Predict the structure.
Amino acid sequence: MSAQPAPVAETGYPWPIETARLDNGLRVVVSEDRTAPVVAVNLWYDVGSRHEPAGQTGFAHLFEHLMFEGSQNVAKTEHMRYVQGAGGSLNATTNPDRTNYFETLPAEHLELALWLEADRMGGLVPALTQETLDNQREVVKNERRQRYDNVPYGDAWLRMLELLYPAGHPYHHATIGSMEDLNAAGLETFQAFHAKYYAPNNAVLTVAGDVTPGEVFALAEKYFGAIETVANIPAAPSGHLPGPATSPVSETVTGTVPAPRVYLAHRTHPFGTAGYDAITVLATVLGSGRGSRLYQRLADGARIAQPDYIGSYGVDLAHAPAPLIITATAKDGVDIATLTEGVAEVVASMATEPVTEAELERAKALLTTAWWRQMSTVAGRADTLSRYTTQFGDPASAAYRLPQWQSVTSEDIADAARTLNPESRVTLTYLPEGPEA
Amino acid sequence: MSLVATRPEPGEARPYAFPEIRRASVAGGEIVAAHLPGHLLASASLLLDAGAARETAGREGTAGVLAKCLEEGTTTRNSAAYALALEGLGAELSTSVDWDSFRVGLSVPVGVLSRAVALMAEAARTPRLDPADVERVRDDEATALRMDWAQPGPRADAALRADLFGAGERYGRPLSGDPVSTAAVTVEDVTTFHESWLKRPGVLLVAGDLDRLDLEELGAAAFAGSGGDPLPVEGPLGVPVAGARRLLLVDRPGSVQSTLRLGHRAPERAHPDYVPITLAATVLGGAFTSRLNHLIREVKGYTYGIRADFAMTRRFGRFGVSSSVQTAVTAPALTDTVGEIARTQLDGVTEEELSVARTWRAGSLSVDMQTPGSIAGALATLVIHGLPDDYYPTLRKRLLETTAEEVSAAAAQHLHPDALTLVVEGDAALIRDELAAAKLGEIITSEV
């Protein structure tokens, strides 16, 4: 029995969008929605680990920490206290492409959030002390230990980036960076980093929720208007690559892991391109959910892979061909060669066995639900609009992503699959120490 | 022109409202629904009185194996056909087992919710439970737990739980079982658990645009073929307090961090002090600006994060603190943590700290409850703990009106710094002597 497909959406963004640009270059995006008495404030700064030169890895991410430690008119620790004290939730993230800062608050506290964001955009440097820098360096080192070093397979992403992108490429090093680089840099280097990149003309401010565009534009002018434009913001090194990798790369790590695991990875297309939309749908057909090919053939069928640890996904990076990652972990008694060969066969099948209508509809239905889940909070909407403004110059282009996924055909997927050949593949393998290995 | 120097005052507060709740009795079961006009997604969840507490001793993990087996095919279609039918609607089942309930739920575009609920009920009520599938899923679950237990945390959690509730009691064993108890689960354990607890009607929770949903149709699908009476609710377990602090050391050779789990027993969720207890925990270790996070992360730089909370279920509660700290500072981090708990118990909270905790918790009711899935979760809390439909507006009012005296009194009464169990999972060879010198309590080597 095949399911009837979910209705096709004509737009992925059925809420209003209004934009303005302050004289200093800050782009402001507003999406009004009166459903709940909350607002989301979201800022994307067009600076990520891809901007970091050799010897300064980890700077963009450490900076994200420093942005919570006080600014000209906000004492150390007050930022968090004010937002949480207003009933809000807040956080920030850094990735290779960009750094984002965001909070969701009861609507009557919008002005507080804008004041805080403006103060740390325009007034961070005078407040940055050696003591704060030293403390946050230690916090980041603990973050690295907790997330990457003390966890089985925890360093897989770090290793894959180095294998996927050549030395010197902006995606070659991981965002968490090198602890040696962080130790070596002084206060002035970090102050200079802020002065260079944290500029109104290098940022997008989005507000979504219970507020009118007019109110937001006036408040943006009031709080951000005084911040000066920064001239000559250095561009990131070019992410251009002449094409897919031309020879396979493999690495094997033997360590304290509970079972053999393999990652296959390919450089594909930048996020936002038709090629990457095809990869997104392909990854869903191949490795998302119990109805996916990997699950059906290796976890359920051949039963060589652990069902909870099999899948494939793209990493949505926009400034160079983005990675597609495929992973599986061996069941007890299954050797790594059998597992790796099994995964490679399923990947190859994407080119040789046409994707069926049912497979395609399943993938599109899952992507549709995922899209609406992202849109179900004002914070999810605000982050999406900031992304499309930063990366594609137009928040309204967010509306096209869902229809573009829905228009991907089985031929598009077969074309994309033909580029995933073993000659351009990164293979990262983990083996347990001891007799099992 | 320059930056605005003074913090702006808040505007006029929008009135708070929880979505309109509708209740209905349909086909022998109860529906509790929240109306979310205009929402494109809708959520449904079948709430069954079949929590982990109902598992047999030595077979902890049975409910988790059953939860996974629900998608291994039904009496009318095999697992591949089921996956295609469900995922073809854009739905994925989320199953969860806690101490009080077994839940099967999903979120989908509102137009396909009724078809998704019919498939959800088919899995929950009529799973195939083929013996060979059950055994395979059981083995996979045991392997998955072994993977999980290779990470820092689960062993420390298990050591704490056993110490607080007794290794021989169900509440003293891990919620999801451990690799050994899960491996011991039999086909009969799983089929008996299903037969005994998942065929009762339970409660269907719905959150979505009710103008586009037919509750009768949803209920008819959810309760088809179910029967039996609601189960009696057993009373709270009480709050025994240990005579002295003790430190359980769980060895993890080569660990570059020490995982800390501190705790003691606490009252159940329905306790009248729930609001002041929650606010005390927020000041101590809930908010980012909490006493613990401020001292251990922001001042000392020992950790990426530390938090304290009261976890409260229908029959018991426990106070707990969790963190991971760099190995070299294990003893001072632990000493500082115990010190902050003791200070909070002794001196209570300040009005300044409390004002942040109050408005944060109250504001979170709007900020955290935007999606149909989170609203359905809020409905589950009402049902499990027997709370009235106006509970959330009342809770918000109480959070905002509770005084520093009330919160300090709750901290004095419900925190027991001298009765804490301190679990440290780390490289014992590197930290044992230092922990002994810190004199935090008798050191016991845990064999979890």
Observations:
- Residues 246-446 of chain B form a domain with the Cytochrome Bc1 Complex; Chain A, domain 1 fold (CATH 3.30.830.10).
